[in-house]
Design goal:
Shape: globular
Largest sheet: 3 strands, antiparallel
Number of helices: 8
CATH class of the largest domain: Alpha Beta
Number of domains: 2
Distance between the termini: 44 Å
CATH superfamily of the largest domain: Iron/manganese superoxide dismutase, C-terminal domain
CATH architecture of the largest domain: 3-Layer(bab) Sandwich
Strand content: 5-15%
Helix content: 40-55%
Strand order of the largest sheet: 2-1-3
Number of strands: 3
Structural class: mainly alpha
């Protein structure tokens, strides 16, 4: 069965004013849809046609002859994770086990945020910035183009899309402002916590009090 474009987990205007309705329409309905359609075209009639998206990514990641398949499969998967990495009313500091892991592996939320923003801003050209679990240790990764930590055996918790089409309508060339907004107002910490098997917790704002 052909892959389908997943629906957004929220309304098109749900992330406004941080991400506009126009950006989500353009990004999801045009860019993401194009990757899904191209992937289906490329794998039709091949031995990859009935494999899961994750299996296709792993199988093609190091095969230059299947680079187009990998790029479209990875971008299909990356975008799906990106939508889940954001939520209305998101952002701020997580609570519970998620915060404990961040404090343990980064020395605190401020240090995590500083490193995440730096990796995203320093990314030359198009790509992604990721929070991953690598054999029990949280890491921040930056990858170029379609590359995804999934292909390297790391577990993805959150991702921020730093291809220009993700933010240009709303932020023009201000990538740093977009990434900071992602962390302050959009990051879905319940999703990240669930990827680690934690129960969702109310996030902790800068006052240090739970809401």
């Amino acid at each position: 069965m052909a892959f389908q474009l997943p629906k957004l987990p929220y309304a098109y205007d749900a992330l406004a004013p941080h991400v506009s309705k126009d950006t989500l329409h353009y990004h999801h309905d045009k860019h993401h849809k194009a990757y899904v359609s191209k992937l289906n075209e490329l794998i039709a009639g091949t031995n990859l046609e009935k494999k899961s998206l994750e299996d296709i990514i792993v199988a093609t990641a190091k095969d230059e002859s299947k680079e187009k398949i990998f790029n479209n499969a990875a971008q299909t998967w990356n975008h799906t994770v990106f939508w889940s990495s954001m939520s209305p009313g998101g952002g701020g500091e997580p609570g519970g086990g998620m915060m404990e892991r961040i404090e343990k592996d980064f020395g605190g939320f401020d240090a995590f945020k500083e490193k995440f923003v730096k990796e995203a801003v320093d990314q030359f050209g198009s790509g992604w910035t990721w929070l991953v679990d690598d054999n029990g240790k949280l890491l921040i990764r930056a990858t170029h183009d379609a590359m995804t930590p999934l292909a390297e055996g790391q577990s993805v918790l959150l991702t921020c899309d730093v291809w220009e089409h993700a933010y240009y309508l709303d932020y023009q060339n201000e990538r740093e402002k977009f990434v900071k907004t992602f962390l302050d107002n959009l990051a879905n910490w319940d999703y990240a916590a669930s990827c680690l098997g934690f129960e969702p917790h109310e996030k902790v704002r800068r006052t240090g009090t739970r809401h």
